[in-house]
Please model this.
Amino acid sequence: MEALMRIEGVSVHFPVRKGLLQRQVAAVRAVENVTLELRKGEALGLVGESGCGKTTLARTVLRLVEPTEGAIWFDGQNITDLKGKGLAPYRRRVAAIFQDPFSSLNPRMTSGQILTEVLKVHKYPGDVTARVQELLSLCGLAPRFADLFPHEMSGGQRQRVGIARALALDPEIIVCDEAVSALDVSIQAQIINLLEELRTKFGLTYLFIGHDLSVVRHLCDRVAVMYLGRVMETADSEEIFANPRHPYTRALIDAIPTPDPEGERGREHVALGGEIPSPLNPPSGCVFHTRCPLAMERCRQEVPVLERLTRDHAAACFALDAEA
Ligand SMILES: Nc1ncnc2c1ncn2[C@@H]1O[C@H](COP(=O)(O)OP(=O)(O)O)[C@@H](O)[C@H]1O
Ligand SMILES: [Mg+2]
Model:
């Protein structure tokens, strides 16, 4: 599969300023030298504990945050320096769905008005009213939902409006940042099914961010695991669950509760000791070494790069050499 988007060596550092002169005294290293490909038609899952930089990376891809270093390529074009009008085609082709539709949907507008606004801003060439009805129906909402305000709907229905808004301009990529994380499990399943259905119907490509690995496993073809701003491992979904190679990925997978209490008892947990270090002052060498059960001296000194293990599996870890 060809790459539709390429994130190339992207770092995002947020300056921390102090004092009267607002001098920069430090930086939050939210994303550090991330390289990732999003292939046409795939769903790529991005996982990792809270604070590891997933949302920042998503917002960088959406051109809502400027990368400190690196570039984003989309369909052969470097979109990192596009500005104003130059960005409009990109904004049509890459859409987003966020976690909390309550904060991303205007509370004073009905769903019909919300959808109409997006279509008008981007000068939708067809019949706007018909398109609004079509979008609602595509997302499993009856026509009467056009007249409802966000607070008159359930969480699942609001997220359907969020999806309808993302779909409005026929995008190629949808970035889903914790799109189902706030919903009840049964509603989550319905929204995941809808996302799957839409993906098949329109050949969409997803960058799907979630901290719930079981949800990601269900929806995504490939998974990238992030820790403290860096990508630690990437592989096919099946492969990463069957054969996780990075100690951090293993710990994440071990932490998924199993529905079977008997099995749960017999399972060996590789507990992750301690807290995630602060991105203000990340550990030297491999950022995971302070919590890693396999850490060696080398891990404190050198930064491991993502190394290809098989055709579609890569991990950044020195312990893998020792293992091989
Ligand atoms: N605008 C910002 N200014 C300063 N720090 C930020 C900003 N946005 C995010 N951060 C910090 O960057 C790190 C990564 O955050 P985020 O991308 O939201 O992680 P995630 O989505 O994985 O939970 C966190 O330490 C967060 O506090
Ligand atoms: Mg986030």
Observations:
- The first helix runs from residue 54 to 61.
- The mean pLDDT is 92.
